[in-house]
Amino acid sequence: MTPDDIQHVTRSFARAFAAKRDIAQRFYDSLFARAPHLRAIFPEEMGLQQEKLNGTLATLVREMHRAPILGETLDALARRHVYYEALPEHLPLIGDALVDALVAETPGGLSRAEEAAWRAAFAWISGIMAPAMADEFERREAARSAGVAPTLPPGAIVRDRQRAARGS
Ligand code: HEM
Protein backbone atom coordinates (compact mmCIF):
# COMPACT_ATOMS: atom_id res chain seq x y z
CA MET A 1 0.00 0.00 0.00
CA THR A 2 1.63 3.26 -1.15
CA PRO A 3 1.14 6.80 0.23
CA ASP A 4 -0.92 7.49 -2.93
CA ASP A 5 -3.16 4.51 -2.12
CA ILE A 6 -3.68 5.87 1.39
CA GLN A 7 -4.65 9.25 -0.04
CA HIS A 8 -7.10 7.70 -2.54
CA VAL A 9 -8.71 5.56 0.15
CA THR A 10 -8.97 8.47 2.60
CA ARG A 11 -10.44 10.89 0.05
CA SER A 12 -12.96 8.45 -1.40
CA PHE A 13 -14.01 7.35 2.09
CA ALA A 14 -14.75 10.98 2.95
CA ARG A 15 -17.24 10.99 0.02
CA ALA A 16 -18.53 7.53 0.87
CA PHE A 17 -19.21 8.41 4.49
CA ALA A 18 -22.42 10.26 3.62
CA ALA A 19 -23.77 7.02 2.16
CA LYS A 20 -22.36 4.71 4.84
CA ARG A 21 -25.70 3.04 5.64
CA ASP A 22 -26.32 2.19 1.97
CA ILE A 23 -22.74 0.98 1.64
CA ALA A 24 -23.01 -1.34 4.65
CA GLN A 25 -26.35 -2.69 3.43
CA ARG A 26 -25.00 -3.23 -0.10
CA PHE A 27 -21.84 -4.81 1.32
CA TYR A 28 -23.78 -7.54 3.16
CA ASP A 29 -26.21 -8.02 0.24
CA SER A 30 -23.24 -8.51 -2.07
CA LEU A 31 -21.47 -10.83 0.40
CA PHE A 32 -24.54 -13.04 0.86
CA ALA A 33 -25.21 -13.09 -2.90
CA ARG A 34 -21.64 -14.36 -3.45
CA ALA A 35 -21.65 -16.76 -0.51
CA PRO A 36 -25.20 -17.56 0.69
CA HIS A 37 -23.88 -20.11 3.22
CA LEU A 38 -22.29 -17.25 5.20
CA ARG A 39 -25.69 -15.72 6.06
CA ALA A 40 -26.16 -18.25 8.86
CA ILE A 41 -23.12 -17.11 10.87
CA PHE A 42 -24.41 -13.52 11.09
CA PRO A 43 -27.21 -12.26 13.36
CA GLU A 44 -30.71 -12.22 11.92
CA GLU A 45 -31.02 -8.51 12.62
CA MET A 46 -28.12 -6.86 10.78
CA GLY A 47 -28.60 -3.19 11.76
CA LEU A 48 -26.09 -3.24 14.61
CA GLN A 49 -23.63 -5.31 12.62
CA GLN A 50 -23.77 -2.72 9.83
CA GLU A 51 -23.01 0.04 12.33
CA LYS A 52 -20.07 -1.93 13.77
CA LEU A 53 -18.67 -2.49 10.30
CA ASN A 54 -18.93 1.22 9.52
CA GLY A 55 -17.23 2.09 12.81
CA THR A 56 -14.36 -0.30 12.12
CA LEU A 57 -13.97 0.90 8.53
CA ALA A 58 -13.78 4.50 9.76
CA THR A 59 -11.05 3.53 12.28
CA LEU A 60 -9.10 1.61 9.65
CA VAL A 61 -9.19 4.51 7.21
CA ARG A 62 -8.34 7.08 9.90
CA GLU A 63 -5.34 5.08 11.15
CA MET A 64 -4.16 3.83 7.78
CA HIS A 65 -1.05 6.02 7.86
CA ARG A 66 -0.10 4.58 11.27
CA ALA A 67 0.57 1.00 10.27
CA PRO A 68 1.82 -0.30 13.66
CA ILE A 69 -1.34 0.83 15.49
CA LEU A 70 -3.54 -0.54 12.76
CA GLY A 71 -1.61 -3.81 12.82
CA GLU A 72 -2.58 -4.34 16.46
CA THR A 73 -6.24 -3.51 15.77
CA LEU A 74 -6.35 -5.91 12.83
CA ASP A 75 -4.57 -8.68 14.71
CA ALA A 76 -7.16 -8.44 17.52
CA LEU A 77 -10.07 -8.24 15.03
CA ALA A 78 -8.77 -11.34 13.22
CA ARG A 79 -8.43 -13.33 16.46
CA ARG A 80 -12.01 -12.49 17.50
CA HIS A 81 -13.23 -13.61 14.09
CA VAL A 82 -12.00 -17.16 14.64
CA TYR A 83 -14.83 -17.44 17.21
CA TYR A 84 -17.36 -16.12 14.67
CA GLU A 85 -16.60 -19.05 12.32
CA ALA A 86 -14.78 -16.76 9.86
CA LEU A 87 -11.96 -18.37 7.87
CA PRO A 88 -8.93 -16.79 6.16
CA GLU A 89 -10.33 -17.97 2.82
CA HIS A 90 -13.40 -15.77 3.39
CA LEU A 91 -11.27 -12.63 3.32
CA PRO A 92 -11.20 -12.22 -0.50
CA LEU A 93 -15.03 -12.48 -0.53
CA ILE A 94 -15.18 -9.66 2.00
CA GLY A 95 -12.76 -7.54 -0.06
CA ASP A 96 -14.78 -8.05 -3.27
CA ALA A 97 -18.08 -7.30 -1.54
CA LEU A 98 -16.63 -4.14 -0.02
CA VAL A 99 -15.28 -2.83 -3.33
CA ASP A 100 -18.62 -3.67 -5.02
CA ALA A 101 -20.49 -1.69 -2.37
CA LEU A 102 -18.13 1.30 -2.53
CA VAL A 103 -18.27 1.44 -6.35
CA ALA A 104 -22.07 1.24 -6.36
CA GLU A 105 -22.91 3.56 -3.46
CA THR A 106 -20.13 6.16 -3.09
CA PRO A 107 -21.49 9.48 -4.37
CA GLY A 108 -19.74 9.97 -7.74
CA GLY A 109 -18.54 6.33 -7.74
CA LEU A 110 -14.85 5.41 -7.43
CA SER A 111 -12.17 6.33 -9.97
CA ARG A 112 -9.99 3.48 -11.24
CA ALA A 113 -7.15 4.67 -9.06
CA GLU A 114 -9.43 4.76 -6.02
CA GLU A 115 -10.75 1.28 -6.70
CA ALA A 116 -7.19 -0.03 -7.11
CA ALA A 117 -6.20 1.72 -3.87
CA TRP A 118 -9.03 0.03 -1.95
CA ARG A 119 -7.96 -3.34 -3.33
CA ALA A 120 -4.36 -2.66 -2.29
CA ALA A 121 -5.52 -1.58 1.17
CA PHE A 122 -7.64 -4.70 1.54
CA ALA A 123 -4.74 -6.91 0.42
CA TRP A 124 -2.63 -5.29 3.13
CA ILE A 125 -5.39 -5.80 5.71
CA SER A 126 -5.74 -9.47 4.70
CA GLY A 127 -1.98 -9.91 4.91
CA ILE A 128 -2.25 -9.11 8.63
CA MET A 129 -5.57 -10.80 9.37
CA ALA A 130 -4.95 -14.15 7.65
CA PRO A 131 -1.84 -15.17 9.67
CA ALA A 132 -3.40 -13.87 12.91
CA MET A 133 -6.49 -16.03 12.24
CA ALA A 134 -4.30 -19.05 11.49
CA ASP A 135 -2.36 -18.50 14.71
CA GLU A 136 -5.55 -18.14 16.75
CA PHE A 137 -6.96 -21.36 15.21
CA GLU A 138 -3.81 -23.16 16.38
CA ARG A 139 -4.12 -21.67 19.86
CA ARG A 140 -7.77 -22.76 20.04
CA GLU A 141 -6.98 -26.28 18.81
CA ALA A 142 -4.05 -26.62 21.25
CA ALA A 143 -6.37 -25.72 24.12
CA ARG A 144 -8.99 -28.18 22.93
CA SER A 145 -6.42 -30.98 22.55
CA ALA A 146 -5.33 -30.28 26.13
CA GLY A 147 -8.97 -30.65 27.17
CA VAL A 148 -9.40 -27.03 28.26
CA ALA A 149 -11.73 -24.34 26.94
CA PRO A 150 -9.77 -21.74 24.94
CA THR A 151 -9.71 -18.28 26.53
CA LEU A 152 -11.57 -15.92 24.22
CA PRO A 153 -9.74 -12.86 22.87
CA PRO A 154 -10.94 -9.64 24.58
CA GLY A 155 -14.14 -8.27 23.06
CA ALA A 156 -15.17 -11.47 21.26
CA ILE A 157 -18.94 -11.95 21.30
CA VAL A 158 -19.87 -15.59 21.17
CA ARG A 159 -23.54 -16.26 20.69
CA ASP A 160 -25.51 -19.47 21.13
CA ARG A 161 -25.78 -19.73 17.37
CA GLN A 162 -22.00 -19.76 17.04
CA ARG A 163 -21.58 -22.21 19.93
CA ALA A 164 -24.07 -24.50 18.23
CA ALA A 165 -22.20 -24.23 14.90
CA ARG A 166 -18.96 -25.24 16.68
CA GLY A 167 -20.65 -28.01 18.60
CA SER A 168 -19.38 -26.69 21.93
C1 HEM B 1 -11.50 -6.78 7.03
C2 HEM B 1 -12.35 -7.72 7.29
C3 HEM B 1 -13.42 -7.61 8.37
C4 HEM B 1 -13.85 -6.54 9.12
C5 HEM B 1 -13.36 -5.10 9.07
C6 HEM B 1 -14.90 -7.03 9.99
C7 HEM B 1 -15.56 -6.28 10.95
C8 HEM B 1 -16.35 -6.82 11.95
C9 HEM B 1 -16.76 -6.16 13.16
C10 HEM B 1 -16.39 -4.74 13.54
C11 HEM B 1 -17.53 -7.02 13.90
C12 HEM B 1 -18.17 -6.73 15.28
C13 HEM B 1 -17.61 -7.62 16.39
C14 HEM B 1 -16.12 -7.42 16.68
O1 HEM B 1 -15.56 -6.32 16.48
O2 HEM B 1 -15.50 -8.40 17.14
C15 HEM B 1 -17.60 -8.24 13.13
C16 HEM B 1 -18.30 -9.35 13.52
C17 HEM B 1 -18.49 -10.44 12.71
N1 HEM B 1 -17.87 -10.66 11.50
FE1 HEM B 1 -16.50 -9.50 10.60
N2 HEM B 1 -15.11 -8.35 9.72
C18 HEM B 1 -14.22 -8.74 8.74
C19 HEM B 1 -14.10 -9.98 8.20
C20 HEM B 1 -15.02 -10.97 8.37
C21 HEM B 1 -15.02 -12.24 7.67
C22 HEM B 1 -13.99 -12.70 6.64
C23 HEM B 1 -16.12 -12.93 8.11
C24 HEM B 1 -16.60 -14.29 7.68
C25 HEM B 1 -17.22 -14.48 6.63
C26 HEM B 1 -16.79 -12.12 9.12
C27 HEM B 1 -17.90 -12.47 9.85
C28 HEM B 1 -18.31 -11.87 11.02
C29 HEM B 1 -19.29 -12.43 11.96
C30 HEM B 1 -20.03 -13.74 11.81
C31 HEM B 1 -19.38 -11.54 13.02
C32 HEM B 1 -20.21 -11.72 14.31
C33 HEM B 1 -21.59 -11.15 14.15
C34 HEM B 1 -22.39 -11.32 15.46
O3 HEM B 1 -22.76 -12.45 15.76
O4 HEM B 1 -22.60 -10.29 16.11
N3 HEM B 1 -16.11 -10.93 9.23
N4 HEM B 1 -16.88 -8.09 11.96
Structure description:
The protein is mainly α and 168 residues long. The protein has one domain: Orthogonal Bundle (Globin-like). 70% of the residues lie in helices and 0% in strands. It contains 7 helices and no strands. Helix 2 packs across helix 3 and helix 2 packs across helix 5. The longest helix has 34 residues. The radius of gyration is 16 Å and the shape is globular. The chain starts with a helix and ends with a helix. The structure holds protoporphyrin IX containing FE (HEM). The site of protoporphyrin IX containing FE has 20 residues, from helix 3, helix 4 and helix 5. It comes from Roseivivax jejudonensis. Its EC number is 1.14.12.17. One of its GO terms (molecular function) is metal ion binding. Belongs to the globin family. One of its GO terms (biological process) is cellular response to nitrosative stress.
Q: What's this entry about, in short?
A:
The protein has 168 residues and is mainly alpha-helical. Helix content is 70%, strand content 0%. It has one domain (3-166): Globin-like (Orthogonal Bundle), CATH 1.10.490.10.
